[in-house]
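Researcher: Here's the sequence for the chain we discussed earlier.
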Amino acid sequence: MIEIKVVPLQNDYYFYGMRKIIGVASGGYTSEHAISKKSGQVVFEALKDSKYDCYQIDINLSSWTVIDHSGIKYPLNQESFSFEKEGQPIEFDCVVNMIHGAPGENGELAAYLEERNIAHTSCDAEMAALTYDKRACLKVANAHGFTSAKRLSVNKGDEPSAETVHEQVGFPCFVKANRAGSSFGVYKVMNAQELPAALQGAFKEDEEILIEAALEGREITVGVLEWKGKVYVLPITEIISENDFFDYEAKYEGKSQEITPASLPEAWEAAARKMAKELYTTLGLKGITRTEFIFQDGIPHLLEVNTIPGMTLQSIIPQQAEAAGISLSELITGVIDQSLMKKA
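Model: Thanks. This is the structure I predict for it:
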């Protein structure tokens, strides 16, 4: 029997010179499908001339498909997570998870890949499920000493009265779908009269929602990743929305100013960077994350943790990488390298 050896070369891993097979997964089953596809396309193009052999993986409810650089499509075997090309079986060495929402951001895809011993760039299944659940994530973060706004957890069929919301959270407040992203199912409620419509809209995205006090202050978002063996904090972005908050229009249709690097008081910046890094390590996160805060009285209050941040041309992480002098190709390649080295 011929023994196949793994040969390390400049921190990359090859089987006798064969390039690693990388899949960029996008799509998914939620309202974020279209945004995920855009993120996946940007990442795929960024890896086009990389050292890896890359393919797109389109995951939706009706089919799972692999697409090569020529646009040729191949059915993906969902049992083995492999496909055939020109009569040869192709297996993935690592998957770049760009699926916002289910099944990528909630841990389903991570669990599926981990069962098949395939490396991936997102956090482990357990932590993905935790961070996707805003209510659970904030509860755990609070237990570790991280500060957040007052909030109320609500399930469909058990809607609170406006009086209860006023007493426990106050107006204005935010009504948020518990397990959704890209500001789908998020409403700023100024008074009791606006509450029923906001609850109805949020429940269209999830049967669990979060009602949160609307903090007034400077909003920032902090990218964190494991980079070359160390936890690295990217330059901070301050968000100034033209709308009432950082909603879909502000995120994707240019209705906001995104200032990178943010011009913050030195103590504020240090506190935000420290909190974002500690949260990353405390929760045992992996890959690229983006954590959002609002400053109140100089203290960063945690809003949420995004473990599959957007990578579209309008997204914040690419802006932060550029401010750090890191190209998107370098950023994604570094995350892939990290995932492969951990698995080797």
